[in-house]
Amino acid sequence: MEEDKEFFFTDTHAHLASSRFEDDLPEVVERARAAKVSRILTISCDLEDATTNVELAKRYPLVLAAAGIHPLYVHEIASPDWESELRGVAGQPEVHAIGEIGLDYFHPPGDGSEEAQWRSLQREIFEKQLQLAEDLDLPVVIHQRNSASDVSDVLGNFPGVRAVLHCFTGTPEEAETALSRGHLLSFTGILTFPKAPEVREVASIVPLDRLMIETDCPYLAPVPFRGKRCEPAHVVHVAETLAEIHGKTLGEMAMLTSDNASRFFGFPEPRS
Fold it and tell me: Which of 22, 49, 155, 183 is deepest in the core (most CB within 10 A)?
């Protein structure tokens, strides 16, 4: 692929429903467009996010939606009918994935419960959402923090579900386990951090057809934006670093990762 051929980027993990974008989201989306980011998957942390994401996908041609309940928000589930409500949102055509879902053992229990009880609740909600993904034939976006072994065990019970491990910072062994099961790995701005050589090392062993890029915005702004609010336009810097790691041009890496995203999420062609 020649560097001057047309290419575009896909940000596979952004939190556009975040309150940190409420004052200037149109400008954020326009900056992404100007940076050749042609698709943005906006991720949910709870049911409110999921509904908002569908609305954003209807409003902005660049945006596609994911619906799910983040493990750190499981204690906030108020409705006994949450599964039906999530199924209703996830069944809409704007939704291309269930996520983000998974297990987080890094943060303390959000409801003040004992650790074992907290982990049990997370696992219960995780499993129910994986079943929903299987029912709807949707891929899943996985959050795992200090929980790789348990996440792997749970995913093993749903062999038909396609997963991407977002913001991957695990070990080479954890990467190999995920790859051996057919999952994909996605990398954020952490890839650009000077003190993250281990993450770059892992990224170097991931086959090109299993890679995706993301911002996780408004978090994890890459170099040279450390300390500032991250936004989808910054995914270009993640792609630049990944291209250097794999000896590819920026255009090649943009399209490799965009093609992977298209296959994995079933994305349509970018809309103008």
Answer: 49
pTM of the entire predicted model: 0.96
> Is residue 60 in some structural domain?
yes
Q: CA–CA separation, 78 vs 153, rounded Å?
A: 28
Asked whether the beta carbons of 180 and 171 are under 8 A apart, the reply is no
Task: Return the number of other C-beta atoms located less than 10 Å from residue 36's C-beta.
Answer: 17
Which residue type occupies 43? I
Give the model's pLDDT for residue 2: 43
Percent of the chain with pLDDT over 90: 95
Rounded CA gap, 57 and 117, in Å? 36
- Segment 174-201 shows an average pLDDT of 97
Residue 271, domain member (yes or no):
no
Q: Which residue type occupies 1?
A: M
| Section 190-215 average pLDDT | 98
Strand, coil or helix: 223: coil
Q: How many distinct structural domains can be found in the chain?
A: 1
pLDDT tens digit string along 260-270?
A: 999 999 998 88
